[in-house]
Write a structure and sequence with these properties.
This protein is mainly beta. It has a single domain, classed as Sandwich (Jelly Rolls), CATH 2.60.120.10. Helices cover about 5% and strands about 40% of the residues. It contains two helices and 13 strands, in the order ββββαβββββββββα. The longest helix is centred in the first third of the chain and has 6 residues, at about 35-40. The chain starts with a strand and ends in a 13-residue tail after the last helix. The mean pLDDT is about 95.
Length: about 180
């Protein structure tokens, strides 16, 4: 058992959370999100209005990059993914990339304007995220191509075998993306 910890990385407002997972012969239990404890350790105030799940049956499912005008708290119920994020906000960090393998013991807090993507490394992955705004057709979104060479992301499963939606395949290159303003 490790201690709960929250640390900000070099993308402002982006946090990695090490969760405590307690297990025995029956399985395991974790507090996935605990507002008071996490805020005391530095996580920003975050008012959850919606909880979303994405189930991915196959290894190699690759989703993203999507940047929304709200924050997300992302975690897994099971399995392992390769997560990738690109800062699409206006400023010096525009285009900055961060990657991290996520398991049930690790969560991330993604600020608005940072594009999120992931690739499943195992079958039957349940990916969950809390958000602080409801989806709206009027919301301003931004996206970038998963395999843009300028991002220099070393995806564990390459583009030729990754399972990608037709919509994500045509996301623009970073050099074509207009920075998001807030």
């Amino acid at each position: 058992m490790s201690d709960l910890s929250v640390r900000e990385i070099d993308i402002p407002g982006f946090y990695v959370i090490d969760l405590v997972v307690n297990g025995d012969n029956r399985g395991w239990f974790k507090e996935n999100y605990q507002k008071d404890k996490m805020q005391a350790l530095g996580l920003p105030k975050f008012e959850v209005v919606q909880n979303n799940f994405s189930f991915n049956a196959e290894a190699g499912v690759t989703r993203g990059f999507h940047a929304e005008p709200w924050e997300k708290f992302i975690s897994l119920a099971n399995g392992k993914i390769f997560g990738a994020w690109v800062d699409l906000r206006s400023g010096d960090n525009f285009g900055k990339v961060f990657t991290l393998e996520i398991t049930p013991e690790v969560a991330v807090f993604v600020p608005r304007g940072v594009a999120n993507a992931y690739q499943t490394l195992e079958e039957n992955i349940t990916y969950t995220y809390l958000v602080n705004e409801h989806w709206s057709p009027e919301a301003k979104y931004s996206s970038v191509n998963l395999f843009d060479p300028d991002l220099n992301i070393d995806w564990p499963i390459n583009v030729s075998t990754a399972i990608v939606s037709d919509k994500d395949k045509v996301n623009p290159l970073l050099k074509e993306v207009r920075p998001m303003e807030f």
